[in-house]
Amino acid sequence: MLRVDTIDHRIISCLVSNARSSYAEIGAAVGLSAPAVKRRVDRLLDTGVLQGFTAVVDPEALGWGTEAFVEVHCRGNVAPGEIKANLEPLPEVVAAYTVSGAADAIVHLRASDIHHLETALERLRSVEIIDRTVSTVVLSRLLERPPAPDQQA
Amino acid sequence: MLRVDTIDHRIISCLVSNARSSYAEIGAAVGLSAPAVKRRVDRLLDTGVLQGFTAVVDPEALGWGTEAFVEVHCRGNVAPGEIKANLEPLPEVVAAYTVSGAADAIVHLRASDIHHLETALERLRSVEIIDRTVSTVVLSRLLERPPAPDQQA
DNA sequence: CTTGAAAAAACGCGAGC
DNA sequence: GCTCGCGTTTTTTCAAG
């Protein structure tokens, strides 16, 4: 059902590096005609391998210069779904994961400045199921990139 | 130079939610003609506010089901640029940040499975400037989304 | 400086093979 | 998976606010 061959990988690579390239351009890069590329892309979208296309925005330019990673410790045992439901309404939460180790979850926060970050942290800490948080403020973004096309997979 | 008004924000929102939408579609959403939208998008690309367009890929589908966050502690004082240069060659590193607190950096790793993750961690620890690492393995992805259009910015 | 309208050129998308 | 053809879109040029 979700078979992804070498050509699909190359098509995905093209789209990751430029989501607005035309089917003809992709076809030229992978050695297929434009309609053939479109059919594969449609299939990849159907099967969920491709989840969509988005613009990469400079966070600084829109006033999202400050970010932090927050270890979240919950009260007692909480289901992942419950944590997700509680984090979803907070707009500063750009990512969240349940993790191994002492913490229950890691939350990635993005805010416009330190003050906004503080506000977001207060709101996060006021969430019922959350007991305690440990914040790590990001000083500089060193690297941020899509996963490599593939490798030893 | 990098003035971004309300219409630009709405155009960016459209492109973030679907990078492949046509200029006519965007124009209809923001109340501009297609050429006017294109000019603004070109300008946003020129000024670096928009950095490009990419496909959102399901990590599972390409064999990137396992990820981890790693606190990196360096030997002595190391410049951010040096850390970046040392991390860039490692394909499993999808993001890295210098941070406040005890650690020097947080590295986001993505691997195909636990074994691959272990290999990647070994390679990471073998980097000269790195003294010690503390790994946190991700159990489940709760949330992952682009920053909200904007807010109290 | 920005917009809207109209031109040619390129692209998307279905049918047929 | 490829070719063909029609309708739509993009993109450039031009004139106006």
Summary keywords:
homodimer, 153 residues, alpha+beta, Arc Repressor Mutant, subunit A, Alpha-Beta Plaits, 2 domains, 5 strands, elongated, DNA-binding
Textual characterization of the structure:
2 copies of one chain form a homodimer. Chain A has 153 residues and is of the alpha+beta class. Chain A folds into 2 domains: 6-46, Winged helix-like DNA-binding domain superfamily/Winged helix DNA-binding domain (Arc Repressor Mutant, subunit A); 59-137, Alpha-Beta Plaits, CATH 3.30.70. Chain A has 5 helices and 5 strands. The first copy, chain A, has helices at residues 6-17, 23-30, 34-46, 80-87, 114-125; strands at residues 50-57, 66-74, 93-99, 105-111, 130-144. Chain A has a 4-stranded antiparallel sheet. In chain A, helix 1 packs across helix 2 (23-30) and helix 2 (23-30) crosses helix 3 (34-46). The longest helix of chain A is centred in the N-terminal third of the chain and has 13 residues, at 34-46. The radius of gyration of chain A is 20 Å and the shape is elongated. Chain A starts with 5 loop residues before the first helix and ends in a 9-residue tail after the last strand. The mean pLDDT of chain A is 94. At the A-B interface, helix 1, strand 1, helix 4, strand 3 and strand 4 of A face helix 1, strand 1, helix 4, strand 3 and strand 4 of B. Chain A binds a DNA duplex (17 and 17 nucleotides) through helix 3.
